[in-house]
Write a structure and sequence with these properties.
Layout (H helix, E strand, L loop, with lengths): L1 E4 L4 H4 L7 E10 L2 H13 L12 E3 L27 H6 L4 E4 L5 H9 L3 E4 L5 H4 L3 E8 L8 E15 L6 H4 L2
Parallel strand pairs: 1-2, 2-3, 3-4, 4-5
Antiparallel strand pairs: 2-7, 5-7, 6-7
């Protein structure tokens, strides 16, 4: 199992291969459909900076449940990634280096990952309560009006992932068929 830390660099990403098991630590951001639409529109329509840095960043496709007392976050399992595929190329163009979700990606998203040297990780679906134990801190940093779909900054430690799409265009789902 490879241990990696954010922000992600090209040097780290070129060591990852489709099928690798990874423990990710550092800062990641959450964003789902509504937040992706706003982020993409922001990047296309203005030169203002986003309220978080995309360069070297990782976005986790999750809409966590409310945290219980004494916990950083509630259950935070992955959501289906294909719904963010139409926004993926623009975010990668501006420096996003990895996404986390579940399920396969579109041809366009995979092509953009190869072009911009980014990876796609899968988190285990149905294990949101267990994954939340890897989250040490959580803070809303953008779009609080979106509720559970607001962008959160998470501090994670040893977050378990599998590399599905690597920077060379390999796809773990197709390697295993």
């Amino acid at each position: 199992m490879k241990k990696i830390t954010t922000p992600l660099t090209d040097d780290v990403l070129k060591t990852l291969k489709a099928g690798d098991e990874v423990l990710l630590s550092g800062t990641i951001y959450t964003a789902r459909d509504a937040a992706h639409k706003r982020i993409a529109n922001h990047l296309l329509l203005t030169t203002d900076h986003l309220p978080f840095v995309l360069k070297g960043a990782v976005i986790y496709y999750t809409g966590p449940t409310p945290e219980k007392p004494g916990k950083a976050i509630g259950s935070c399992g992955p959501t289906s990634s294909y719904r963010m595929d139409k926004y993926t190329p623009i975010l990668l163009k501006y420096g996003l280096k990895a996404t986390i979700g579940k399920g396969p990606r579109s041809k366009e998203a995979k092509k953009a990952m190869k072009k911009y040297k980014a990876v796609y990780f899968a988190a285990t679906g149905g294990a949101g309560a267990l994954l939340s134990k890897c989250v040490k801190k959580s803070k809303i940093v953008a779009y609080p009006e979106l509720g559970c779909e607001a962008v959160r900054k998470l501090e994670v430690e040893n977050f378990p992932l599998i590399v599905i799409n690597d920077i060379k265009g390999k796809d773990f789902y197709h390697l295993t068929k």
